[in-house]
């Protein structure tokens, strides 16, 4: 376990204030938002990609006997994913793709914030 954990790059933790800034928000319908709760970025990404394809991809859950329960994919009732939401999970706003499994402050969140600010400036003209 220790060897495997050492091989995984560490990312700077987010403060509660940073988590609540616009650079960490994206639009989701309520059922999608509730479905993945506090899952890691890569799990959320998988769900958004599936929804964009018209599928509901459930997050595997760990049972009491320490086994993963993996439910079947089903058709999504509402497959629409807002373009900017899709872009966030595709890391469209990131200047470089560092780690596809994490949403990082340095590249992902800052790139997203820069794009939001550029859009607002366009409205000012």
Give a topology summary.
Layout: H1 2-7, H2 16-19, H3 30-36, H4 41-52, E1 55-56, E2 61-62, E3 68-69, E4 74-75, H5 83-89, H6 105-124
Antiparallel strand pairs: 1-4, 2-3
Q: Describe it for me?
A:
The chain is built from six helices and four strands, in the order ααααββββαα. It is 45% helix and 6% strand. The mean pLDDT is 84. It has one domain (16-124). It is mainly alpha-helical and 125 residues long.
Task: Please give the oligomerization state of what you see.
Answer: single chain
Main sheet strand line-up: 1-4
Count of distinct strands: 4
Q: Given the C-alpha coordinates, what overall shape results?
A: globular
Q: What is the SS-derived class? A: mainly alpha
- What is the residue-mean pLDDT, rounded to a whole number? 84
The total of helices stands at: 6
Number of domains: 1
Q: How can the largest sheet be summarized?
A: 2 strands, antiparallel
Rg measurement, Å:
16 Å
Through-space gap between termini:
55 Å
The percentage helix is 40-55%
SSE run: HHHHEEEEHH
DSSP strand (E) fraction?
5-15%
Which spans of ≥5 residues are poorly predicted at pLDDT below 50? none
């Amino acid at each position: 376990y220790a060897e495997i954990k050492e091989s995984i790059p560490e990312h700077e933790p987010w403060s509660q204030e940073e988590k609540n800034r616009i650079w960490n928000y994206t639009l989701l319908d309520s059922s999608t938002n509730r479905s993945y709760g506090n899952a890691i970025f890569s799990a959320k990404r998988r769900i958004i990609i599936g929804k964009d394809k018209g599928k509901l991809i459930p997050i595997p859950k760990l049972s009491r006997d320490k086994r993963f329960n993996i439910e079947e994919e089903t058709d999504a009732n509402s497959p629409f994913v807002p373009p900017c939401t899709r872009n966030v999970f595709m890391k469209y706003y990131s200047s470089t793709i560092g780690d596809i499994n994490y949403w990082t402050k340095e590249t992902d969140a800052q790139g997203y914030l820069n794009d939001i600010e550029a859009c607002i400036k366009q409205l000012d003209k």
